[in-house]
Amino acid sequence: MKLIRTEAVHHLELPPGHRFPLAKYTALEALLVSEFPGEMLLGAPASREDLQLIHDPGYVRDVFEGSLSTSAVRRLGFPWSRSLVLRATRSVGGTLAALTWAVAFGAAGHLAGGTHHGFRDRGEGFCVFNDLAVAIAVARRDFGIGKVAVVDLDVHQGNGTAAIFSQDPGVFTLSLHGARNYPFVKEQSSLDIPLPDGCADAAYLEALDRGLEAVVRFAPELVLYQAGVDALVGDSLGRMALSLDGLARRDARVFAAVRGMGAPVVVTLGGGYGRDLTQTVAAHANVFRALVGTAATATRASG
After folding, report:
1. 6 with 91: CB under 8 angstroms?
2. So what CATH class is 2-10+20-302?
3. Helix, coil or strand: residue 195
4. Catalytic machinery residues
């Protein structure tokens, strides 16, 4: 079991007052490195070849060369910089490193990634490239994996992932998200479960159980878990009301379902925009603590 860290995700040239929570990456990594020093690996940047398995070559070129249009930059939500290119490629590369480890040993996590608003030809919502989609393409190319499920529990629908695989019967996309939240024009996932503002633990977990039943019926050979924590009460962009305990029970359900299927799992960070940074970091850390615990339990059981 390994956790992949990607130092470049901590560094991004942003204007004063930008709402992207860059500080959470530094804080989360510091916390988990202290708890799991033997589990940490440093991810490398994704190659253009890997990115172009999913993304339009012209879009990839524009990102690398800084020739994105004004409207493309506005839609992305980040100003272009060399640090953005490094961050974007390492964000995908970290998930690919986690994929390699998960295929070999059953589970791995990436302390960034989950950039599910990336489309084939554009970025949106702080997502330059779609690491989940690229990981699926690499899983097929390098490991011969056919059926993949994406369990996306970020409060914002994974519109890019849904659009990329809308005509692909080998990919099942599950999205639990805020019905009235961004993106305001939704794509069609394999299963969308829109939830109301203020949704709390009991209703959320009931909806999740329905979603996971569908994933189990699909019988994937690999699961990608976008484990955003922006459903936490008090999140500035989330508009839901889950507690830390509710999020922990959410993660336990996902990992139990994955364990029951016997599929390897890759966990990515996703969103979390709490006004209280310590709460956001605590919620993210709990996801990876649960992953490490689940992997250790599985290892003992198989031994």
Report:
1. yes
2. alpha beta
3. strand
4. 117
